[in-house]
Every structure is written in structure tokens, then in C-alpha cells.
Design brief:
Layout lengths: L2 H23 L4 E2 L2 H7 L13 E3 L4 H14 L2 E5 L16 E5 L6 E5 L4 E5 L4 H8 L4 E2 L2 E4 L7 H7 L3 E3 L7 E7 L5 E3 L32 E8 L1 E2 L2 E8 L3 H14 L4 E6 H9 L5 H14 L3 H11 L13 E9 L2 H15 L5 E2 L3 H8 L15 E5 L2 E4 L3 H14 L1 H7 L2 E9 L2 E11 L4 H6 L2 H6 L7 H20 L13 H4 L4 H13 L19
Parallel strand pairs: 2-4, 3-4
Antiparallel strand pairs: 1-2, 5-6, 6-12, 7-13, 8-9, 10-11, 10-12, 14-16, 14-17, 15-16, 15-20, 18-21, 19-21, 20-21
Helix pairs in contact: 1-3, 6-12
Length: 540
């Protein structure tokens, strides 16, 4: 059989598969436009994979189940995309015969149960929409959403074990899931799996919920989730700067041991400078933020003191020139207790050279809108950026930051040659510590970044020309720095297809069992092939 015959057979097979999908969903819900397919086949990395055959927008879980059965029969792969904010190729196809499900169509908040303390929602709900749905209830999900801005969805956070704002990570507040498996079966987990039982508790016998969390979408397509609610606590904000990164990280390690904070996020000098240039929000937004804060704080004297600590005549201009800034949030059942916790954190930081700053940043993150992700697609100078993350026990925090600084020093000449820069953030969630280096270099915006970028950020990149050698050097720095952290025993947010999950588990019984689980829940390997190193080859 010659190649022309094979190509004709392939085209015929593709047309047959697409015809079945159009018959199921309707032509208006099967996106075939090349530009749309290319956009949905890329993520923040803009590392090119295969281009999806179609973008599918099912109307229901039943539609999604039928899609999976068609995919099995037609030999298709099915990837799912939420807000598209992955930067580790989470939904990027590795097989040419791939369809991408637009999970953003599943965007309803289904139930807010204040008495039993859970919220039920579809996984395409954005964090900004969940916050809106809970407003006025006095309740929150303890994890408040990612720092990826106003496009990020809850489902993406479930798959990638998102960190960001609030307490610990998203996975730790999940009570149950609805998942469509690779053969079309629909699975429920947690107490919801028990006939006639509400989704109010997770550990209902052996816990199947955890298998589908942090899996980067390897084992099933998550369609619904039940999340724990808690009453909004009273909050006290702190913000400090340190003489250098290592001093800052020593303070974070001490904080981790204390367990006093809810969250603590540190920005280095580059990001502090970017914040310093941000304009004040519109007057209407400021009034709403203050009104929400005032409503949350019945002790008006303490509330007024908190507002005064957050205010500065230059807005965020006080950040200009600082080497770093770390905000932290202390929470308790009453404001006086939250203030005392914040004061104890301040005392922990003082021996490491901490100097207190206005608390504008944490105030804005709690009471302002989610970040506009369009502003990070390129910076004011037309540079793109690429983050790397690694999670460590707090006892390794200083060692990891010193390893980053040594890596940056060792590669300083290379970066200068290509006009590449590196910045570095660090964060605390509960007892663990995370590091997030970010690489910057000049590169034209690709289809993904152009789609999301603000007009100003697109304009900043119009005169930038591609330099393949520079981009290759930047990506090589990324992968070499990842290996430095992995050799130190790191874990990662978003393992997906960029971090070496399979190699990290090599030789462990765990890896063999995960492969067997993949074969059970996805017998034909149609779900997101290659993610976590699983299911690369199709199975008949």
C-alpha cells in the first residue's frame, strides 16, 4: 500500500469521525476553523504540538460520554481544555487525530449549601464566577483561586493541583467529583457516590476522588465538583521587604514551621517594579473594595486601622526600587485574634531584616478583581516570559533558593549574550514552600499570547522579531533549571507533559500501578495521551 493510499484512508477515517461528532452535537458545536483549532491546541508555553482535528462543545455529560465512545471506536484522542492557562502543555495534543473538548461550556454553579457547607459546580466555572456566586453568603472555599487571573477555571486547578490565594491547595478542599472515563462510563466519588446521599463528605470508603486530582487530566474528564465551604474569617494583612532573597526565604522557612499564616507570597525586584507602575484601580472599584472590606469587619475601629495600613499616597509607588516584597495573610475567627497572629508573624520575620510596608497588595488581592491575565502575555518591553515551579519541604527552602542563584550566576554570560533575564518568586502554603523562577526574553507573540494579550501588550511586541537561537537558549535554561530542582527532590504543580513525572517514579511500585489504573479507566488510551507520561500509544 503506497503513501497516497494511506493518506486517502486517513482522510476518509477523519471525515467519518467528524461526521459522527457533528451528528451528535450539531455543526455549530464542532469547531473546524483552523485558527480556532490552533488556539485550542496551544497553552502559555506556546510549544507547538499537533493541531486538533476539532474543538468540541458538548451540551451535557451525556454528550461527553457519547464523545468518549465515538473516540474509542474511531481511534481518536480526547483532550480537555478549561481556561487554557496551563504552561506545561497540559492540553496540547501529541497525536494528530485529537479532538479538544472546551470544558468552559460546563460553567454553572449548581448548589450553594450554607448549612451543610458545600458548593456544587461544573468544572468549567471560573474562579471569578465562583466568588460572585458565593458573595453575600458569608462563606468561601478555603482555597480562593489561582494567580493566573480572570480566565482560570476550577477544573484546571483540580487537574494541576493549583496553588495561589487562600489556604493550602485546591485538592485538599474537594468533597467529591463527577468524572467521565475513557470508555464513556460516568463515575461519582465521595459521599455523593452513595445512593441518596448528599455530597457533604469525601472519605466514603476507599477514596477514589484523589485519583482524579493532580492527574493533569490523565484518568478522566472531570465535569462536576463539590467543594468544602467555610465561614469567611477575619483577616489581618502584612507586607514586608528584606535585604535579599535568601534572608526572605529564611523568614519563610520560619513561618512554615510556625503554621501561623494562611498564605505568604514573595515577589522579587522585577515584579515589585511592575507592581509599582500599575495605575490605581478606577474610583468605582476602589469604593466597592472598601465597602466589601467594611462589611466584613464589624469592629469599625480595627477596620479603620486596617484601611490606614493599606493606604499610601503614591498608590503602589512605594514599591519602586525595592529588592523584593512579601505579603502575608493571617486569619482567625475575630479581628483581634487575626491582628495578634499577624503581629506574631511580624516578630518572626524581624530577625531576618524585614522592614514593614503598606499592605496595599494583600488588600487588593483579597478585595479587588482577579488579575487580568492579558497583562502577563508580554511585558511593557515586549518580552515574553515562562515560569517554572518547584515545591519543597520548608527545610530545603534556603538550599533551593541558593541553587537558583548559583544557576543564574553560572549562566549569566549566556543570558547576557541573548538578552535573557530571570526573576524569582517564592510562596508558602501551609507547611510547604514553593519557588517560581520566571525567564524573560524578546519573542513575537504567537497565536495564543496574541489572543489573550491586552491591546497595549500586543503593541509592545509589534516590532519584536523572532530569534530562534535566543528562544532555544531560553527554553534550554528552563529545562536545565527544572532538572536542578528535580535532582534536589522537588515536586511540581502542573506535572502534565513538561515535568518528568514518569522518571520521578521510575522503579517504584506506584508507577506500575498508575499504568494499570490508566488501562482500567481509559482502556483505549484516548484521554489526553502523554500527560504524566501515560497512555502515549493507543490501544485497540
Amino acid at each position: 500500500m503506497n503513501s497516497r493510499t494511506l493518506d486517502m484512508d486517513r482522510i476518509e477515517q477523519d471525515q467519518q469521525a467528524l461526521s459522527r461528532l457533528i451528528e451528535l452535537l450539531g455543526a455549530e458545536r464542532v469547531g473546524l476553523d483552523l485558527a480556532e483549532r490552533q488556539l485550542y491546541s496551544m497553552d502559555f508555553s506556546e510549544e507547538v504540538g499537533e493541531t486538533a482535528m476539532a474543538v468540541l462543545r458538548p451540551r451535557s455529560v451525556e454528550d461527553l460520554s457519547a464523545i468518549m465512545r465515538i473516540a474509542q471506536e474511531e481511534g481518536l484522542a480526547v483532550n480537555t481544555r478549561g481556561g487554557g492557562m496551563s504552561y506545561t502543555k497540559g492540553h496540547v495534543p501529541v497525536r494528530p487525530r485529537t479532538v479538544v473538548v472546551d470544558n468552559a461550556v460546563f460553567n454553572r454553579v449548581l448548589e450553594v449549601n450554607v448549612q451543610d457547607r458545600y458548593v456544587s459546580l461544573e468544572t468549567g466555572v471560573r474562579w471569578v464566577d465562583l466568588r460572585r456566586a458565593l458573595k453575600g453568603t458569608g462563606m468561601r472555599v478555603p482555597y480562593l483561586g489561582t494567580l493566573s487571573g480572570n480566565h482560570a477555571t476550577v477544573g484546571g486547578g483540580l487537574s494541576q493541583n493549583a496553588t495561589g490565594m487562600g489556604r493550602m491547595t485546591l485538592a485538599e478542599h474537594v468533597l467529591g467529583l463527577e468524572v467521565v472515563l475513557g470508555d464513556g462510563r460516568v463515575l461519582r466519588t465521595g459521599s455523593w457516590a452513595t445512593s441518596g446521599t448528599a455530597p457533604f463528605y469525601r472519605y466514603n470508603g476507599p477514596d477514589l476522588t484523589g485519583m482524579f486530582l493532580c492527574d493533569s487530566g490523565a484518568f478522566g474528564l472531570k465535569t462536576k465538583v463539590h467543594l468544602l465551604l467555610e465561614p469567611w474569617p477575619k483577616m489581618s494583612f502584612g507586607c514586608v521587604t528584606f535585604p535579599d532573597r535568601v534572608s526572605l526565604v529564611r523568614a519563610q522557612a520560619a513561618m512554615a514551621q510556625s503554621g501561623l499564616h494562611t498564605e505568604a507570597f514573595a515577589f522579587d525586584g522585577y515584579f515589585v517594579g511592575e507592581y509599582a507602575l500599575k495605575p490605581s484601580p478606577p474610583a468605582q472599584d476602589k469604593r466597592q473594595m472598601i465597602a466589601d472590606y467594611w462589611a466584613d469587619n464589624p469592629n469599625k475601629w480595627r477596620a479603620l486601622r486596617g484601611l490606614i495600613r493599606a493606604w499610601h499616597p503614591s498608590g503602589l509607588g512605594f514599591l519602586r526600587g525595592l529588592p523584593n516584597a512579601m505579603y502575608y495573610i493571617a486569619e482567625a475567627a475575630d479581628q483581634a485574634a487575626a491582628d495578634r497572629v499577624r503581629q506574631r508573624i511580624a516578630l518572626l520575620c524581624k530577625p531576618y531584616g524585614a522592614r514593614e510596608l503598606p499592605t496595599t497588595i494583600p488588600f487588593g488581592l483579597r478585595y479587588g478583581p482577579y488579575l487580568n491575565v492579558g497583562e502577563i502575555m508580554a511585558n511593557r518591553d515586549g518580552e515574553v516570559n515562562f515560569p517554572i515551579n518547584a515545591k519543597f519541604p520548608a527545610s530545603k527552602a534556603v538550599q533551593a533558593m541558593q541553587a537558583f542563584e548559583a544557576f543564574a550566576a553560572d549562566n549569566a554570560a549566556l543570558m547576557q549574550q541573548h538578552g535573557i533575564r530571570m526573576a524569582c518568586n517564592s510562596l508558602l502554603h501551609g507547611h510547604f514552600w514553593g519557588i517560581e523562577p520566571v525567564i524573560f526574553w524578546k519573542r513575537p507573540l504567537g497565536p495564543y499570547r496574541s489572543h489573550y494579550a491586552t491591546p497595549e501588550r500586543r503593541a509592545s511586541s509589534t516590532l519584536v522579531e523572532e530569534n530562534a537561537e535566543r528562544t532555544a537558549a531560553a527554553l534550554d535554561l528552563r529545562y536545565r533549571l527544572q532538572r536542578v530542582f528535580r535532582d534536589m527532590g522537588s515536586l511540581h504543580v502542573q506535572w502534565a507533559k513538561s515535568y518528568p513525572f514518569a522518571q520521578a517514579l521510575e522503579g517504584q511500585a506506584t508507577w506500575g500501578l498508575l499504568q494499570q489504573i490508566k488501562d482500567v479507566v481509559d482502556p483505549s488510551h484516548v484521554i489526553n495521551p502523554g500527560v504524566l507520561g501515560l497512555g502515549l500509544e493507543p490501544r485497540p
